[in-house]
Amino acid sequence: MAARATNRGRARKTSKAGFSLIELLVVVAIILIIAAIAVPNLLRAKMAANEAAAAENLRSLTTAATVYSTTWGNGYPPNLGVLGGTSVAATCNQAALLNQLMTVTPYQDSGYTYSYTGIGPMVSAVSGCSAPGYNAFLAAATPVTVGATGIRSFCSTVPGVIHFDVTGSAILSASACEALPSL
After folding, report:
1. Residue 118's domain spans which residues?
2. What pTM did the predictor assign?
3. Is the dihedral of CA 63, 66, 70, 74 positive or negative?
4. Domain for residue 144, yes or no?
5. Residue 4: inside a domain, yes or no?
6. What pLDDT digit, counting tens, does each position of 19-43 carry?
7. Within 13 A of 8's CA, how many CA atoms are on the CB side?
8. Which of 63, 140, 141, 146 is spaced 20 to 30 Å from 98 by Cα?
9. Residue 26: inside a domain, yes or no?
């Protein structure tokens, strides 16, 4: 009789010991299914956030170029680097108008690479400025990796209208930019 009670005690202990292999596999399978649903949505949300940041950064770049032109009378900036800077006293060589990430090599922020090209004839350099500016410009934001950091590329020219290209390709001319749909 004592042996029988001992066997029942062991049976109870083994049934309370933990989960079976099947139960653990079911839980792992459920977690993998949830992850398979959630991860693509998370990546799409991140790309949408990168695109929104790129469009806003390009708007800031366009505004900074206009502020540069009106403040120093040196035309639009000669290059993207002059719009950056950390000095307290801004100059036409270091305007401190934009985020440093956008104005130093590799000109990247939020999954996008930014470019700035002066267009048209250069204006006469103003005293104190190391380089003359331009009469117009083309600013662009291109995804670092199309399909991973963003899908659309963006551009802006002197009128200040932001245009986009759904292929994510680099936009290389003002006429190509202006031919694209605007935001």
Report:
1. 19-179
2. 0.79
3. positive
4. yes
5. no
6. 889 999 999 999 999 988 888 888 8
7. 5
8. 146
9. yes
